[in-house]
Amino acid sequence: MFATLPEKFRAHGLKADVRTLLLFRKAMQKGLIKTLGDVHNCLKGIIVKEPEDIGPFTKAYYEYFLHVPIQPGQTLEDAILRSETFAKWKTQWIEENDRDLTDEELVNTFLDQVHLTSYDIKEVINGKEIWDKDNPDLEDDDPVDNESEAQERVLDKMADYSDLTLDELLERMEKVREQQRTQHGGGSHWIGTGGISPYGHGGAAKNGIRVGGQGGGKMARKVMGDQNYFPIDRDALLNDDNIDAALASVKGVIEESAIEKLDVPLTIKTGLKRGGLFIPELTSEKNEELKVIVLIDNGGYSMAPYIRSVQALFRKMKTRFAHDLEVFYFHNTIYDRVYTNERRSQWITMDKLLLHDKKYRVFFIGDAAMAPYELNRQSFESLRAISLKFKKSVWLNPEPLKYWPHTYTIQAIKEVIPMFPLTPAGIERAVVSMNSKNANH
Amino acid sequence: MAETSHWTGSEKYLCDPALAQAFHMARTLGMPLLIEGEPGTGKTDLPIHYANDRGLDLEVYPVGSKSNVEQFVARFDHVKYLRDSQIEILNAQREEKGLEARLSTGGRNPESLADYVVKGPAAVAYGKPNSVLLIDEIDKAPREFPNDLLYALSHRKFIMPESGEVIQISEEEMPAIVITSNREQELPTAFKGRCIYHYIDFPDQEVMGKIIEKHHPGLDAQVVRVALDVFYHLRRLGLERAPTTREILNWLKYMSEIAPEEAVKKIEGLQGIGALIKTQNDMERVNRMMGASNFPYGGLN
Hints:
- The complex is a heterodimer of chains A (about 450) and B (about 300).
- Chain A is about 50% helix and about 10% strand.
- By secondary structure, chain A is α/β, with parallel strands linked by helices.
- In chain A, helix 15 (about 305-320) links the parallel strand 3 and strand 4 (about 325-330).
- Chain A is flat and about 85 Å long.
- Chain B folds into three domains: about 15-75 and about 120-200, Rossmann fold (3-Layer(aba) Sandwich), CATH 3.40.50.300; about 75-115, no CATH class; about 205-290.
- In chain B, the strands form three sheets. In chain B, strands 2-5-8-1-9 form a five-stranded parallel sheet, sandwiched between helices. In chain B, strands 3-4 form a two-stranded antiparallel sheet.
- Chain B is elongated, with a radius of gyration of 25 Å.
- Chain B starts with 16 loop residues before the first helix and ends in an 11-residue tail after the last helix.
- Classes of the chains: A alpha/beta (about 450), B alpha/beta (about 300).
- The interface of A and B includes residues 117, 257, 284 and 286 of A.
């Protein structure tokens, strides 16, 4: 069942495989899935693993289960209005309800039905429409009457599907999904009379019962208009939007461990004090190593757009981890000194820089593009000295990768210091290469 | 799986329906619920209020940078064990010399190894049917911790070190496990794969109004409305550290002691805004963009 689901969801960059299906099946066995809204919420809990998955998930879900494709940049409302599924649903709905609604109201009703969950139904059955109570706007038309009538109807339908075995249910769901795709598959569907349900007919979103409104539909709509719910383009150059993604990559440079160790000297010392009663003393040893030197090329216009982002990145890193972080500046390349302030009026000499502990990791940030004569012997020696002393050195370059082979100085520097693009993905690769044992040599 | 009825929040805790469903699903499937979201969205409060409301036992494991799975499950106290066994010898020697005074082992018997097993929250929770286990801020842990934890959680069975005691629980009585994270560190994919995931969206203005109502019932509606406007405006400024639920609650706590008309005026004048803004950069920014410059650093008067 749903054999194509993992494949289709993977196409949206989500992680889905046979385990997803097994878990989904288990959820069905446990009776968690009774409506299309349940399918949505359940799969969401299983498949979505970070906020950036929510956007692709919503898209994949609408495409797979409802055949509503959502184009990039399109709002959910627009996508629904243009879809065939909606057109069919609308015809049926108008036929049954004999009421004229604006497109907006229709979409709202559609969304309410799509995202109707069995929890909503239960709320109605229990007679405590908590959300409606809290929302004065909805409390207008004689709720008492509707409710009692509705209750009966729902209970009726509930009895209807509780008889189905799991296999029948699965079969039915798959069939209905198939039918939904074919053009002339009228009749009882996920989206059909009086609500949407894998059980064909039935469902509770009919007339008097006011459900939804609070939940899925609203969220799905919000998701489509919010870039926070979509993955960041990790190959885009570092900017304020993807700085957190980059930070996550940089975090990989921290080596952390916490172990309990037997403190031999202390054990002996206290043991002797006790007159030979040796009691092992334990100390917990926490190692957190993060020493970073950042060398930023802040000369010239070519680097200007990136400096702020780079500084923000490393500043964030510092506030989060509060370790040794030193920032120096240079112009194009390094000769005999690096500057300690942005205006490059104060400096320390190369020798002094090289006095730093060899455990420091060094990040060069610059476009490495300059006139060939600028990259003279002295500069080469300085760079080589740094990369020899600090085995974990990398160069992050904002210049697009495709220009690298055509710039002589980039090629030359790349020979001395491993170079990566200044993108979240590039930073991650840089960190991985730093952490590998034979970093750069 | 503990208790698998659907729980939708309590008097004090407004549980978003989506979260309530995810929590229910996790309990029904016997999987841990991993909650992520901005600070102040009530991640930690969920299991606490749930346990309170349902009268279940709650075990909390606050994760820190030194957390390891031994603390979480159980460890054997070698130090005490050695001390007690040494004491036996010492006492025997004293007796030989005719000394009366004996050292005590505090009721522990070196013969019984179980006396030296220090049980962590996991072992305790698994020893009690239908309990609630909260693993708070897992993103603070050393990198290998989540994977160790995963192994421990997926077996429903712990073997105590040295004593060999087995703590086991049936799938029906599994504790409801809630794990929270602030996303300061990416969790391993395999770990996330074993959890039901829920991301708590920051509450919108309407929901925030309800949350405030739960905490400060009877606060003047006008005050709340004005405060909410300011609050969400601040959040839209893109500050380094956007104000969270906790901060607006504190701010309103202060305002609740003042007469409503006065309070509205104070809020509109951005007084006491220091309760919402946490860094100097942000403060400067707010001053620039909203003109709170008359009250630098949000002095409370």
